[in-house]
Structures are given as C-alpha cells and as structure tokens.
C-alpha cells in the first residue's frame, strides 16, 4: 500500500484493488447561530459543504463509497437541518442515503456553526483523471466564482451545476478536472499545468476573475483539446469560457 497527496486529495494505492480517493472540507461561522458571521439556513451549509468534497472525489473519476459528516453543533435542531442539506446533495449525485454517517456535538452548547465533511471513493489506477493533459490543450471554465452571500438561493444558475459537472466527468474527451475553491482559477490552472509538466498561459479579456474565490466549488476548470471543445460544449447546458492553454 502506498499513500500519496495530490491536489486536495489523498490517494491510497492498493495492490490488486482500486485506489482509494479521499477528500475533506470544513465550514465555520456560516449558519443560523448567534455568532455566525454569514447568516444562511443550516440546510444550505450542509448542502454546499458536502458539495465540495464530493466534487473533488468525483472529479478524478472515482466512485463515491461513503460520506462522513462531523457536525460541531447539537443534533436538534441545527444538526438535523444540516444533515437534510447533506442528504439533498447525496441524492443529487445519485448516492444511497446509507452512504452517509456522522456525529454531532451533544456535550457542549454551541453558539457558532461549524462542520466537516470527509468523502471516500475508489477508482481503478488506469482510469484516474490526473495528469491526462498535454501541451496545446485548452483550459476551460464552467461556472462563475462566488462565495458566501454572493450565491443566490435557493438556486443559482450561474454556478457550476452538479448535472453538468457529472456530465464532464463522464466525457472521455475531457481530461483533467479541477473544482475551484478559495484559491481561485489561476492557482488551480497553474497546478493543473504543473501536474502535466506544462505551463499555464492565460488568455486576456476572458471576462472571468481568475483569482477570485469560488467558495464551495461554484466553478470548475477542465482541460480539453481545441478540436474536442465544440463537442464538449454541445453536451453541457451551461456556457463555458476558455481561460487559457497549456504550453511546454
């Protein structure tokens, strides 16, 4: 067995078995409690925090096995609301509810919302979508980077939809996929390039703020050949924008 770190993932290579892929995320100070800095429904907190780790694991082609929540709040009423949001996310990616387990804080009264999520998946070594790109490939953005109150509730059509994200993962002509978090698209594009022994060359006047936080993975970037981009676009409901390319 060999354990590696890549991007925000832990990869566990097992002889004769699929690789394990593990991702985690946390959220604090966002919710319904008195000392939360951003006031949003607890269900929304659960939904979007689960979204991040699920997208990280699925982005490399892994099948999700289990989702574990660690809620630093009481089960009733806040925890139940957060779990409802997590369950909604799980159902959206078509996982059984039995994949979910977790814990709540029942010993101490809390005045601020906090939680963590861990997602575990598996993928065959030869099928993992990491380091699949080559010089000349385009780097393309799907979704608008947003964070906190910028996200429209209950539905924001400007952020990357789970439906389009899952469609990307299934496309054989789509190579590397990186969900975008707090470090922004430029950071992830440079990382994607580095993992493929290339350099990222950004395009001018893309209309996208490449350094803006995308919060709970409201946007993703992916690599695709110039020739295959029209085919990819035709299979997505949302618009994409080319933000750059890979060079030697």
Automatic annotation (TrEMBL):
Superkingdom: Bacteria
Pfam families cross-referenced by the UniProt entry? AIRS
Which ranges carry the PurM-like N-terminal domain?
20-123
What name has this protein been given in UniProt? Answer: PurM-like N-terminal domain-containing protein
Which source organism?
A: Alkaliphilus metalliredigens (strain QYMF)
